[in-house]
Every structure is written in structure tokens, then in C-alpha cells.
Amino acid sequence: MTMKLSKSLWALACIAALSTCSAATYPGCPIPPQECICDVLPDVYNYGVMFGTVGCETKKIIFSGLIQTDYQFIAVDDRASDIADPSEVNNFLMRRVRFGVEADLGNNWKGVIVTDFAGKDTQNVYTASGQDDDGFSGLINNSTEAQQSARLFNAPLTRTTDYKHGIFGLYKAYIEYYCAGNFFRVGYKKVNFVREENVEDYDLKTIERSVATEFFNGTNSSSSTGVTSGGPLDFGERHVGLFIDGMYNHFGYGAALVNGYMGAKACSDLWDNELGIYGNLYYMNEFNCIDIEIGVNTGYQPKGNGDFLQFNTPRAWQLQRGNIWAVNPYITINWNGWSLLAEVMAAKVQKGSVDGVSDTKPIGVNIIPSYIWNDCLELVFRGSYIDTDHRGLRISNVVPCARDTFDLALGTQTVFNFSLPGGDLYDKANAWYFGFNYYMLNHAIKFSAGYEFIRFKDRSSGLAVFDPQFGQNVVSTTSFTNPSPFPASPVHHNNKTYVHIFRARLQLVF
Predict the structure, then answer these.
(1) How many CA atoms lie within 13 A of 160 on its CB side?
(2) How far, in Å, CA of 240 to CA of 187, rounded?
(3) Bridge partner residues of 440 (DSSP)
(4) Which of 24, 83, 109, 464 keeps 20 to 30 A from 324, CA to CA?
(5) Rounded distance, CA 34 to CA 191, Å?
(6) Which one, of 424, 444, 430, lies nearest residue 364 by Cα?
């Protein structure tokens, strides 16, 4: 109760500060109506192209856009000889198609809306339902998971068309007010967590973000869908709430009080939700023509972990959500065409293990050096590492559009349908990216190409299994958790999987 009260008071204080600054700017209220400049121009004036707004108080409107057309080839090579490789990915795609509007109302007020037309296409959704050996039943609303569940449990499979995740989406939208050196924002935007994540998409030196970044901030996660085992943390990225950012001398700072779930949903569809708190502090300066930024991002989500099963007796269980605390120190250096970003991400996740019982402490690292010649040709390297500490991740969780490996040799055991994931889990991954960017028209046009090699290791089948000996969920695995007493997964001679990725992108920004 004390924590909830303090958060509420913090939110009210932010709103009060915003109102106080606004009152100082406008001592009289309401503001007298003013004559629009467009009303007093002569009729003979040649306007050319003219835009109008609802209110005369709008001083300026800025339109912006981003178009990214990609080609990608992704090959997954499972090093276990008895597991078939998934099909290759070989396609063109519209990665991002965004249109933004920024309205300047004057007197330090702004409004920003950015939409993205390159969301998910409408898709068929497969639903499988069935009952396991102990009489428990479950429902899976995911195409890959449902088809696999139907295959394993001989359950009925139904198909419907999903229009909820259409091709149109909201990227960010907020109201901004500037007062006393601070930017107050209310709406939907990214929180400050993972420095690579907060680089604008059009400014990324690599074509996609790293496996470590995707694990901490990725949206393709079981924790947002209610599946009980494994997957990214969904910790950073975009939330709805209150934001403040400012700078004093060479020190910058920020804070946010936001929803405990990602997205711009009108309501939470989770069983339980608490507001999350984020903060950041950084120092920027120049020493002998070397620009340096050193900072730290942090955050706390009281109910940030995905739903997990907490067993009390062999036949009694309940769904719970655990807390996440995370920290992200980083440094950026720029000198004479050279650039470096180095950062570490670490978290403590309550009940974050794939078994739904143990706490986990995942850690990730990004190192991204680059060099640019003549402001045109830029060479880029990135090394990335993630250790999930027994939480696990799937290939598709951290590699957009990639296919997952799936071990069908599961044997017979007691398995809960709703715990069945969409592919094998891996405890660790490291990746190396080599690429280049070529800039044209003052960086308005950019062509990028790169190759990335990712090694996933320490595989688990990822199946949550009820163990009557311990009265709790355990995981059938060959590697990163204590083996289940059930003879489910075969012992593979090689628990590694290699992913080879080639991508190319043409980008236009206006």
C-alpha cells in the first residue's frame, strides 16, 4: 500500500508541477481569443499549397516520414543431427513505413503523433484445446504453438482470421510541455532502458538490434501473452504514462511512471498489473575533441514477469506475476569518425526461471564500434552476448522473422497445454555482426548491408512438466536446468544451433 501511495503521489506531483509551470506562463485564464493571421491576408495573395488547423493557436506543423525496404535471408542450422532444420527465410519486406506529425502550439506546448503502416499483416490464428493425462485442460491462441499442441495431444485444431494485429499501428503519441529546463511528456513512448534501444530506428548503425537488446526489450515474448515458460522480459520499449527529461550543465536525467505492460492498449488484459518506475542519469562532455557520454538506466516493474505457475499441492496451483528490477550502465565515445557504444544489461527476475519457481539474474552485453569515411561510407561491427540464467529464449524471440527449432521427440509425460512453447529454449546466445552503411543526400538516403552469425547454446525442450515428487513445475531438459525425472527429451550430442543472417536495407527519411 505504501508503494502504491508513493507512486500515486509522484504522479500527482508531476501533474501539479506541469500545471504550475503552465500557470506561470498564462497568468490569466482563459486566454482571450486571437485573430488568425490567415483571416487578415488579402484575397489576392497567392497561397500555393496551404494547410489549415482547427485552432488558430497552432503555430507550426512539421511532417516527417520513414521508409525502410529490406531484403533478408535467414538460415537456421541445428547442430543436433536428429533434429530437422526449419525452413529458410528468403524475402523482401517493408520493415518500417512511418508518418509523423508534430504540432507546435507555441508557449512551449507540442503534440507528436507517429504512425507505422508496416505492422503485422492479417493472419490466420490457430487454436488448439485439449486435456492432459491429469485432466487439466488449456487453450493456446498462437499459430505455431497450437499446431504443435494439436500434433502432440491429438487435440482439435481450429482456424480463424485475426484482424486485431492489422497493418496499421501507433508508434508513439504524446503531449509535451517545456518548463524550467525540463520536458514533461504525457502519452505513449519509449522509456529509457538499453542504450541501443533508444537510438532512433533511422539512426541505427546495424540493420536490426542485438540479441541482448531484444531479450530485455523484445515484444515477441511469452511474458506478455501469459505462457508460463521462458522468453524475453518485455521490460523496456514503449509504455503509456508520465515522462520527464532534463539537463543541468553536463548532467542529464529522466524519470517515468508508466503502465506495467507494453503497448497503447486502452485497458490491461492481464490478471494483475502495477505501475512501473524508470529512471536514468548521464554525463556528457567533450575532452580534446572526444565526445563522451556515460550513463545508467534503471527500472522496476512490480508485476513485470510473465504469469508463472505456483504449485501448492500436487493438484492446487495459481497464476502469479513476479517483479523485475534491471540496470543498464553504458558509455558512448565519438572521435574523428570513430564511434563506440558499450553497455551491460542486468536484471533480477522473481520466479523468472523456465521452471516457474526459481529467481533468475540474466545479463547481456553490447559492443558496437564503427568508423565513417567522408561522411558517406561507414563500417560497423557489433558483438552481443546474452545469458538468460535458466530463463531461456527462443530463436524467434531475438531474431525477427526467424524460424524456431522444435524437438518433437518428447516421449510421453504429463504436460500442461498452456505451458507448451513455440520452440526449443536456449540459455545463452552470442552474435557477431559485420556490415556497412552508405549515406546519400545528406543522410536522407541510406543503403545498409550486413551479415550476422548467432550461436545459440544450452538447449532445453522448454516443456513445463508437473513433477509430483516436488509438487511443482519442472522442465524436461538436457542442459540448463535440473533434468526432469520424466524421460522426455533425448540426450543430444550437440545442443548448439547456428543462425546465419544476411540483410540489406534501403532507407529514406524526410
Answers:
(1) 8
(2) 5
(3) 445
(4) 464
(5) 38
(6) 430
Residue count of the chain, please give it.
Answer: 510
Tell me the backbone φ, ψ of residue 14, rounded to 5 degrees: -65, -45
CA–CA distance, 409 with 35 (Å, rounded to integer): 76
- Return the percentage of the chain with pLDDT > 70, whole number: 62
- What would the pLDDT profile of 165-200 be if each residue is shown by its tens digit? 334 588 999 999 999 999 999 999 999 999 999 999
Amino acid occupying residue 497 = T
Nearest 5°: the CA angle 360, 425, 197 is 65
Alpha carbon 266 to chain centroid, angstroms? 19
- Tell me which residue of 393, 321, 407 sits closest to 356, measured CA to CA: 321
- Answering whether pTM is above 0.90, one says no
Which pairs count as long-range contacts for 26-32, CB under 8 Å and 24+ apart, including other chains?
Answer: 26/107
Q: What single string gives the DSSP state of each residue in 121-154?
A: PPEEEEEEEEE-TTS-EEEE--HHHHHHHHHHHT
Backbone angles phi, psi at 144, to 5 degrees: -65, -50
- Structure-block grid coordinates of residue 53: 488547423
Cβ contact 238:217 at 8 Å: no
For residue 266, pLDDT beyond 50? yes
Render pLDDT for 447-500 as a digit per residue (tens, 0 to 9).
999 999 999 998 875 444 444 444 444 444 444 544 443 333 444 446 899 999
Partner residues linked to 497 by β-bridges: 78, 456
Residue 255 confidence (pLDDT): 98
Backbone angles phi, psi at 223, to 5 degrees: -70, -20
Which grid coordinates belong to 117? Answer: 503502416
